[in-house]
Write a structure and sequence with these properties.
The structure holds two protein chains of two kinds. By secondary structure, chain A is mainly alpha-helical. Chain A has a single domain, classed as Helix Hairpins (Orthogonal Bundle). Chain A has three helices and no strands. By secondary structure, chain B is mainly α. Chain B has four domains: 257 residues, no CATH class; 239 residues, no CATH class; 143 residues, no CATH class; 186 residues, no CATH class. In chain B, the strands form two sheets. A two-stranded antiparallel ribbon of chain B has the order 1-2. A two-stranded antiparallel sheet of chain B has the order 3-4. In chain B, α3 packs parallel to α6. Chain B is elongated. The chains are: A mainly alpha, B mainly alpha. Chains A and B meet through α1, α2 and α3 of A and α27, α28, α29, α30 and α31 of B.
C-alpha cells in the first residue's frame, strides 16, 4: 500500500508542477489547487498510515501508541483552510493583474511599471 | 542609570532642532545644545567614581536565553571618549551656528549631528558586543547623512557613498569578529570578554578574529590601504569635518582597538599587523599631506597620519605605548578640531581653501592666524604644546622595539621621518597661508570672523597650551583612568611632564623639527618630484569598481530571473530538486524496515481513480469545465483517503473546503479571461517542463516512500497524554488547534481574515463586462435560479445550520470544531446565494462579513488576553466540569470561546470571498460600478 500512496503523491506533484509552468493563468490556478492537495497528502501520508484509530481518547483507556498521529492532522487542517484563502487571493490578484496588462499570457506579465 | 542617561539625553534631543528650527538661528542653536549639555553634566557628575575605577553598569534583559541584553557601562575609556564627543560636539554646535548660511537647513543639520553624537556615545558606552556593533553601524549611516549634507553637490554625494561603502563593509567584518569572539568566550558582555583574553588567544579562531576585527577598525580609522575615503569625506561642511575627523568617527576605529586591547593584543600577529599598518599609514599620510593644495585636504591627510601614529602605538608591545596612544587620542582631538575650525573660518571669510591663492592672511586676520598657528605647532609637535608630549612618548617607545629583529632600528628612524614630514606640512599650513606674500585673487576680502565663531577655537587652543605646559594637572587623572581601562591592570610608572632631561627622544624631536624645516625650505624640489607621478583619483577608481560590480550583478540577476514566472519557477524547482534529492543519494536502500500494509482493492481503486482524475485535469486543462469536474474528483478522493486513514477531522474539513474551492473556481472561470489567446508553448518547452515535473514528482514520491517505510518518532505522545488532563478534550486534533498550538491558530485565522479583506479591496472597483453569451455563442439560460434548487436549498438551510452547531459544540471531544463548523455554515449560506441570487440574499443578510471577521478575531484574541487577567500566560485555557439538572455533567472550557472566534472568522472570511466574487456576476455590481 505504501508504494501506491507514494505513487499517488508523485503523480499529484508532477501534474501540479507541470500545470504551474504553463503560460495560461487558468492553468496556473489549476496547478495551485493540485499543489495544495499534493502537499497536504504528502504530509499526511509520511506521518504513517493508520487504519481505524482516529486520535480520539476514550476515557479510561490508555491512549495507545497505535492511534493516528494527531499533530500532522492539526497542521493539515489549518493548511487546508489557509490554502483556500491563499488560492482565492491569488485568483483575484491574477484577475487584477490581467486588468492592468490585458493579457492572459503570463510571459507578457513581466513589467511592474505598466 | 548614569551610563544610560548619557546616551538617552542626546538621543531624545535629536528631535529638538527639528522642532525649534523656526525659532531662528540663535534659538535653534541654544535649544539643540541643551540635551548634549545635560548629558555632559551627567557625565561630569560621574567623574569621582570613574577616577576611582568604580564600574558603572546599567543592564536591561532583552532575550536572556540568548544572552542578549541592552547594557551600558561607563569606565575610564568610555568617560574619555564621552568627554571628547560631548565637549567637542558642543563646540561644533556653537561653531556651526556661524558657519552655516541662511540657505542651509539648520534644523536638519543639527538633527543629523545629534544623531551622530548619540550613535558615537552608543559605541563607547555599550557593554554588549551586538549592541556595540549596532551603534557602530549607526555612526556609518549618520556620518553618511552628514557628509552628504550638501546633497546638491556631486562631490558630497560620491564622498558620502564611498565613506559608507568602506566603513559599512568593515562593519560587516567587525560583526563577524564580534560574534566569533562571543562564540569562543561564551559571553556577549564587553566587560566579561575583556577578562577572557587568554581564552581568545588560545582559540583556533584567533587569527580569523584578529583579521576581521582589524578590518573593521582599519576601515573606520582610515588606515592604509583603506585611507582613501577620508579625504573625499572632506566634501562635508567644515563643522562636520571638525567633528568627524578629529574626535569621533575616525576615532571609533582606534577606540575599538583600545577597547579590546586586553582581549586581543599581546601576540606576534597583533603587533606585526597593527604596528606595520600604523607605521605605513603614518608615513603615507604625512607624505601626501605635504602636497595637498586644499587646506582641508592637508588636514585630512594629516589626520590619516596621526591615526596611523595612534595605531602604531597600539601595536607596539609595551604598556607605555598604549598609554601614549590614549594620550595622543586626547591631544589629536583637541588640536585637530581647532585646526579644522580655523580652516573653516579662513574658507568662510576668504571664499577659498586653495593654498595657492591663500597667502599673507596674517595682516587680515591676525587673531585667528595666531590661534591657528599655535594649533599647527601642536600638530607639528613643538615643545610647550600638547602634541609634543605624546609625540615624544611615541619616539621613546619606538626605541624599545624588537619586532623587526636586527632591523628594529628602522622603527625609530621611520618615526622620526614621519615626524619631520609632519613638521613640514604644519609649516606649510602656517607659512603658506598666513605669510608668503600677498593673497592671489581671493573671491572675498578676508577679515576676522564673528566673535563667537572664534570662541570654540580659542577654547581648544588654550587647552593645547595648558596641557602642553602642565600635563599632569590638566589630564593626569583622566589619562590614568582611561589607560587603566585599556590595560585592565595596574599602570606602570610613567611621568607626564614637559622636561625629561637631554635624552634620545628629545634628540629625535629636534631632528624632526630641523628636518621638517629643511624639507619645507626645499619644497619646490619635492613638489617637482611629486608632480612626476600621475595623480590617481581614488573617487574615479572607486566609482568605476562600483559600476562594474553593479553591471555584473544586473547580468547575474537577469540570467536568474528574466521576469518570466515559468523560468523562475523552473529554477526554483530545480534547486528544490537538488536539495531534496541529495540526501536520498546517501541512502543505501530505498525500502526501509517498517512492516508495510497489505494493499486492498478499496485503496487500489481509489488510488487509480485519483491518478486518472489528476491526469485528466491536466489533459482537459484547456476545456475548463471538464477540468473542473476532474479536479473535484481529485479533492473528493483526497478527503476520502483522509477518512480511510483515521483522520475524520481532516476529511470533514477537506470536504467542505472542496465545495468552497469548486464554487470559487466556477466564479473565477466567469471572470478570468474566457478564451486563451496563447498558442501553447513550443514542443521542446513542453518536453522540458514535463521532464522537470516528472523528475520532481519522482523525487517527492521516493522521499515519501523512504519515510513511510522507516520508523518515525514523533512528539505526539505528549499531546496524546496531556490532551485530557491539560486541555480538557478528547479530540486531540482539536485540542492541539485551540489549546496547545492556539497561538498558531490565532495567527492562521488572522491570515485568513487579511486575505479575505484583501480580496474585498481588490474587487472593489474591478471593471467587468457581462457577456450575454458563452464563448461559443450560446445564450445563457433564462432560468437563473431554478425553483427546485431554491426550494431544496432553503429547506436544507436550517438543517445545515443545526449540523454546524452540533459539529461546533462537540468539536472538543469528537471530530468537529470551529474550522469545520464554520465551513459548513459558510457553504450552506453560499448555497442560498447560488439558489436565490445576490439580490434575494441582500435583503435577508443584515450584517456585513467584515464585521464578523473582526468579531471572530476579537473574541479569539480576548480569550487569550483573558487568561492574562488571571495571571496566566497568553492563551492558557481553562476548563471545568459542572453538573446541570437534566443535562448532567457538562464541560465549560475557555477553549470553546476561542473556537467560537475561529468559527466566526472562517464564516466571515469564506462568505466575504465568495459573496463578493459572486456579486461580480450580477447586475448589482454594475450599478455599483456606475455609481
Amino acid at each position: 500500500m505504501e508504494v501506491v500512496m507514494a505513487f499517488v503523491v508523485a503523480t499529484l506533484f508532477s501534474c501540479a508542477l507541470y500545470m504551474m509552468m504553463r503560460r495560461s493563468i487558468v492553468k496556473l490556478v489549476i496547478g495551485l489547487i493540485l499543489l495544495s492537495n499534493a502537499a497536504n497528502l504528502l504530509i499526511f501520508v509520511v506521518s504513517g498510515l493508520t487504519r481505524g484509530a482516529p486520535p480520539l481518547i476514550i476515557e479510561g483507556v490508555d491512549p495507545s501508541p497505535f492511534v493516528a498521529d494527531p499533530l500532522p492532522q492539526a497542521l493539515i487542517l489549518t493548511a487546508i483552510v489557509i490554502s483556500f484563502g491563499v488560492l482565492a487571493f491569488a485568483v483575484v490578484l491574477i484577475r487584477r493583474a490581467y486588468e492592468v496588462v490585458k493579457t492572459d499570457d503570463l510571459d507578457q506579465m513581466k513589467d511592474t511599471d505598466t | 542609570m548614569t551610563a544610560l542617561w548619557i546616551l538617552l539625553l542626546p538621543a531624545l534631543g535629536m528631535v529638538v532642532p527639528l522642532l525649534t528650527a523656526k525659532w531662528g538661528r540663535n534659538g535653534c542653536t541654544l535649544m539643540t545644545a541643551l540635551a548634549p549639555l545635560a548629558a555632559l553634566l551627567v557625565l561630569l557628575q560621574a567623574t569621582p567614581s570613574v577616577f576611582q575605577a568604580i564600574p558603572i553598569v546599567s543592564t536591561f534583559e532583552w532575550v536572556p536565553i540568548l544572552g542578549l541584553s541592552v547594557s551600558f557601562h561607563l569606565d575610564g575609556l568610555g568617560y574619555l571618549f564621552g568627554l571628547l564627543i560631548l565637549g567637542i560636539g558642543l563646540l561644533v554646535i556653537l561653531y556651526a551656528r556661524y558657519y552655516l548660511s541662511d540657505r542651509d537647513n539648520m534644523g536638519r543639520f543639527y538633527a543629523y549631528l545629534i544623531f551622530f553624537m548619540s550613535a558615537m556615545l552608543g559605541v563607547v558606552l555599550s557593554n554588549n558586543v551586538v549592541q556595540l556593533w549596532f551603534f557602530w553601524e549607526l555612526t556609518s549611516i549618520s556620518s553618511f547623512l552628514l557628509i552628504s549634507f550638501w546633497s546638491h553637490k556631486s562631490d558630497a554625494r560620491k564622498g558620502a557613498r564611498m565613506a559608507l561603502t568602506v566603513t559599512g563593509a568593515g562593519g560587516l567584518a567587525l560583526l563577524a569578529a564580534l560574534l566569533l569572539m562571543a562564540d569562543v568566550t561564551g559571553t556577549y558582555e564587553v566587560r566579561e570578554l575583556l577578562q577572557q583574553g587568554d581564552v581568545l588567544r588560545a582559540s583556533d579562531y584567533y587569527t580569523v578574529i584578529v583579521v576581521l576585527f582589524l578590518l573593521g577598525a582599519f576601515t573606520k580609522s582610515a588606515q592604509f590601504p583603506f585611507h582613501f575615503w577620508l579625504p573625499h569625506a572632506m566634501a562635508a561642511p567644515t563643522p562636520v569635518s571638525a567633528y568627524l575627523h578629529s574626535a569621533t568617527m575616525v576615532k571609533a576605529g582606534v577606540f575599538l582597538m583600545a577597547r579590546f586591547y586586553p582581549a586581543l593584543s599581546g601576540t606576534e600577529l597583533w603587533f606585526v599587523i597593527v604596528s606595520l599598518t600604523g607605521m605605513i599609514t603614518m608615513l603615507v599620510g604625512a607624505y601626501l599631506a605635504l602636497f595637498k593644495h586644499d587646506l582641508k585636504g592637508l588636514l585630512a591627510y594629516s589626520t590619516i597620519s596621526h591615526l596611523g601614529l595612534i595605531t602604531l602605538l597600539l601595536g607596539l608591545n609595551t604598556q607605555l605605548a598604549a598609554i601614549a596612544a590614549v594620550f595622543h587620542i586626547i591631544n589629536h582631538a583637541v588640536f585637530k578640531a581647532s585646526l579644522f575650525m580655523a580652516a573653516g573660518i579662513i574658507d568662510h571669510e576668504s571664499g577659498t581653501r586653495d593654498m595657492r591663492k591663500l597667502n599673507g592672511l596674517f595682516k587680515y586676520m591676525p587673531y585667528t592666524a595666531t590661534l591657528a598657528m599655535v594649533a599647527a605647532a601642536s600638530m607639528a609637535g613643538v615643545p610647550l604644546m600638547n602634541g609634543f608630549l605624546s609625540k615624544e612618548m611615541m619616539f621613546a617607545e619606538t626605541l624599545t622595539q624588537e619586532t623587526l629583529g636586527a632591523l628594529s632600528w628602522w622603527i625609530p628612524v621611520l618615526a622620526t621621518l614621519a615626524g619631520a614630514l609632519g613638521v613640514a606640512y604644519s609649516l606649510r599650513f602656517m607659512h603658506d597661508v598666513f605669510f608668503n606674500g600677498e593673497p592671489i585673487d581671493l573671491p572675498r576680502t578676508p577679515h576676522e570672523p564673528p566673535r563667537f565663531m572664534r570662541v570654540p577655537v580659542e577654547f581648544l587652543v588654550v587647552l593645547c597650551v595648558f596641557v602642553g605646559i602642565i600635563p599632569q594637572f590638566m589630564v593626569g587623572d583622566l589619562l590614568a583612568a582611561a589607560s587603566l581601562a585599556v590595560l585592565q591592570h595596574e599602570l606602570p610608572y610613567y611621568s607626564l611632564s614637559l622636561w625629561h632631561g637631554f635624552n634620545l627622544p628629545l634628540l629625535m624631536s629636534v631632528v624632526a623639527v630641523i628636518g621638517g624645516a629643511v624639507l619645507y625650505w626645499h619644497r619646490r624640489h619635492l613638489f617637482h618630484f611629486y608632480g612626476q607621478f600621475a595623480d590617481r583619483d581614488a573617487k574615479q577608481i572607486f566609482e568605476g569598481a562600483v559600476q562594474a560590480l553593479q553591471t555584473a550583478m544586473v547580468a547575474v540577476n537577469h540570467w536568474l530571473d528574466n521576469a518570466s514566472l515559468q523560468r523562475f519557477m523552473f529554477l526554483l524547482v530545480l534547486l528544490a530538486l537538488i536539495l531534496a534529492a541529495s540526501p536520498l543519494l546517501h541512502l543505501h536502500e530505498t525500502v526501509g524496515t517498517q512492516p508495510q500494509l497489505a494493499l486492498n482493492w478499496v485503496v487500489g481503486l481509489a488510488a487509480m481513480l485519483l491518478i486518472v482524475a489528476t491526469l485528466l485535469t491536466v489533459w482537459w486543462s484547456h476545456r475548463r469545465l471538464l477540468a473542473l469536474i476532474a479536479l473535484s474528483v481529485v479533492g473528493l478522493i483526497v478527503s476520502i483517503s483522509f477518512a480511510y486513514f483515521s483522520a475524520p477531522d481532516l476529511a470533514l474539513t477537506q470536504l467542505s473546503v472542496e465545495v468552497a474551492t469548486i464554487i470559487l473556481f466556477l466564479l473565477a472561470l466567469f471572470f478570468l479571461p474566457q478564451s486563451s489567446p496563447v498558442i501553447d508553448s513550443p514542443f521542446k518547452i513542453i518536453v522540458r517542463d514535463l521532464g522537470v515535473a516528472a523528475l520532481f514528482g519522482s523525487v517527492i514520491g521516493t522521499l515519501c516512500y523512504v519515510m513511510l517505510t522507516r520508523p518515525l518518532t514523533s512528539i505526539s505522545a505528549f499531546f496524546l497524554e496531556n490532551s485530557v488532563p491539560g486541555g480538557g478534550g478528547t479530540n486531540v486534533v482539536n485540542v492541539i488547534l485551540v489549546d496547545f498550538r492556539g497561538f498558531d491558530t490565532l495567527g492562521e485565522i488572522t491570515v485568513l481574515g487579511i486575505a479575505a479583506l484583501g480580496i474585498y479591496k481588490l474587487l472593489a472597483r474591478i471593471p467587468l463586462y457581462m457577456p450575454t453569451t458563452d464563448s461559443k455563442g450560446h445564450r445563457w439560460s433564462q432560468d437563473r435560479h431554478p425553483v427546485l434548487l431554491a426550494l431544496v436549498s432553503q429547506s436544507l438551510l436550517p438543517l445545515a445550520l443545526l449540523v454546524s452547531a452540533y459539529i461546533f459544540l462537540r468539536g472538543h471531544n469528537l471530530p468537529g470544531g470551529g474550522f469545520i463548523a464554520g465551513l459548513i455554515t459558510a457553504v450552506a449560506l453560499v448555497q442560498q446565494y447560488v439558489a436565490h441570487g445576490v439580490d434575494w440574499m441582500k435583503g435577508r443578510i443584515v450584517f456585513n462579513y467584515q464585521a464578523i471577521i473582526a468579531a471572530g478575531l476579537l473574541i479569539a484574541t480576548m480569550t487569550g488576553v483573558g487568561s492574562m487577567a488571571f495571571g496566566r500566560e497568553f492563551l492558557t485555557t481553562w476548563f471545568d466540569y459542572v453538573s446541570w439538572p437534566i443535562v448532567g455533567k457538562f464541560e465549560i472550557a475557555s477553549a470553546l470561546i476561542f473556537d467560537l472566534g475561529v468559527y466566526l472568522t472562517v464564516v466571515g472570511a469564506t462568505l466575504l470571498i465568495l459573496a463578493n466574487l459572486g456579486k461580480l456576476t450580477t447586475t448589482e455590481r454594475l450599478r455599483a460600478g456606475e455609481g
